[in-house]
Amino acid sequence: MDAFEIRGGLPLRGECRVYGAKNAALPILAATVMVDGTSVIEDVPELEDVRVMMDILRSLGAHVTREGNRVVVDGSHIVETTVPSDLMRKMRSSVFLMGPLLGRLGEVSVSKPGGCVIGQRPIDYHLRGMRQLGANVEERHGTIRCTANRLIGTSITLDFPSVGATENLMMAASMADGVTVIENAAREPEIVDLADFLRKCGAIIEGAGEDKIRVVGVHRLTGVEHTVIPDRIVAGTLLIAAAATKGNIALHHTRPEHLGSLLGKLREAGVQVEVDHDIITVEHVGQLHAVNLRTAPHPGFPTDLQAPMMALLTVANGASIIREDVFEARFKHVNELCRMGADITVDLRTALVRGVGQLSSAPVEASDLRGGAALVVAGLMADGTTRIEGLHHIDRGYQQLDAYLRDLGAEVARREL
Ligand code: EPZ
Fold first, then answer.
1. Of 121, 126, 39, 52, which Cα lies nearest the Cα of 78?
2. Which residue ranges make up each domain of the chain?
3. Most ligand 1 atoms within 8 A of CB, residue of 23, 44, 306 to mutate
4. Of 1.10.486.10, 3.65.10.10, 3.40.50.300, 3.30.450.20, which CATH number belongs to 2-19+230-416?
């Protein structure tokens, strides 16, 4: 177990390149199971969740190698249809294997993913959609087994624009017989990236990025090369950290159009943000103003940036109201921020953040990925040296976060406990 030690009060300054998106790489790697051939995926971040996904692909019979940020998957000999439960337990995103295995081999067994600290996170939309595509779905003793001689295209309406359900069903539909329409689909950029990959492989998909996606099933997908889009949540986290330290940074290799909601809220809070092609710059940070925000499916404010943004607003002038409308329990970072002197009260899905003059360092612990990022933002601006435990959460979604921050002038040490 490791811990970060962060000496607060140093402004972040400099430039860095944003790497590929975890939440695009994971479904795309899962989709390589559908490809009867070799897929070359570029700009795949080096993260624990990606390592687990690569091990899952190997357990299914794929040959998987990594050369730097390039991951090569040969899916010619996928023979296994059961995702090992020990690997499933390590990462919820293994549920993404359901659609691909069902589509390619007509069978898949996964263990029911547990909830996590941010909420119960059921997969009922995924399972209902698979049944609507003609699969037989059995849930017994914690295992979910889906079988289908052939998936049959149909019309599916999601109760909520679920990112994972949209991705899983889009993958399954890609190899179904006939046409599938997914209504009330999620519109996240990672879904567009997955669709782009699948279309390169020969899938017929229209409307990804909109709330209605149309898929015409095909019988075979062939291997291609694909570069994953930049990680908008990592980019957003670094922009928030720059604002929190009244710094001045330029992020290269971004997609500003993926961050419209965050950039708008940062500007509303008094942060001068400039955009020039794929470069986003935090130019100047005056007195921060309180802002209200509610998380929502894309293009609304991303739930994955709610915690880091809350950390920033703990020192804004005035009171901010933050409403978490995507997950039912995504405020686990509040108590830790309050240990650092923040003034936050929570009522169900709403947090009231009253700005204080400055946070003070304290020993804190991350309990989830983005909550951990919030504690890093808080530590960067707190008076004194903050110690953050629970780095395994942060390592799931941020590649060498301490090294990136040190390159931007922060004093962050990673200590073995
Ligand atoms: C994806 O999770 C992301 N993970 C999450 O990022 C992100 O927070 C989330 O989308 C929302 O943007 C990956 O892409 C790997 P959902 P996912 O299905 O697909 C409910 C991070 O920090 N729901 O859109 O699991 C669910 O409980 C992670 O990188 C059902 O009720 O999110 C939640 O309240 C955290 N039934 C809401 O929908 C279902 O069958 C949104 O979940 C599916 C979802």
1. 39
2. 2-19+230-416, 22-227
3. 23
4. 3.65.10.10
CB of 163 closer than 6 A to ligand 1?
yes
Q: Which residues contact 167 (CB under 8 A, 6 or more apart)?
A: 27, 96, 99, 186, 190, 191, 194
Whether 315 contacts 381, CB under 8 Å:
yes
Supply the pTM of this predicted model.
Answer: 0.98
Active-site pick, 116, 146, 201, 338: 116
Instruction: Report the candidate in 365, 336, 334, 363 with the shortest Cα–Cα distance to residue 350.
Output: 334
Q: Is the CB of 298 under 6 A from ligand 1?
A: no
Q: Report, as an integer, the average pLDDT of 332-339.
A: 98
Amino acid at residue number 47:
L
- What span, in angstroms and rounded, lies between the C-alpha atoms of 54 and 65? 8
CA gap 258, 232 in Å, rounded: 6
Report the CATH superfamily, name and number, of domain 22-227.
Answer: Enolpyruvate transferase domain (3.65.10.10)
Q: Is the pLDDT of residue 302 over 90?
A: yes
Centroid of ligand 1 to alpha carbon of 174 (angstroms): 21
Give the ligand 1 atom nearest the CA of 127: 40
Both tokens of residue 170?
A: 């889009």
Q: Relative to the CA of 124, which ligand 1 atom is closest?
A: 40
Q: Strand pairing partners for 136?
A: 147
- Is 116 a catalytic site residue? yes
Cβ 192 under 6 angstroms from ligand 1: no
Q: Return the pLDDT at 88.
A: 86
The percentage of the chain sitting over the pLDDT mark of 70, rounded to a whole number, equals: 100
Q: How far apart are CA 406 and CA 348, in angstroms?
A: 37
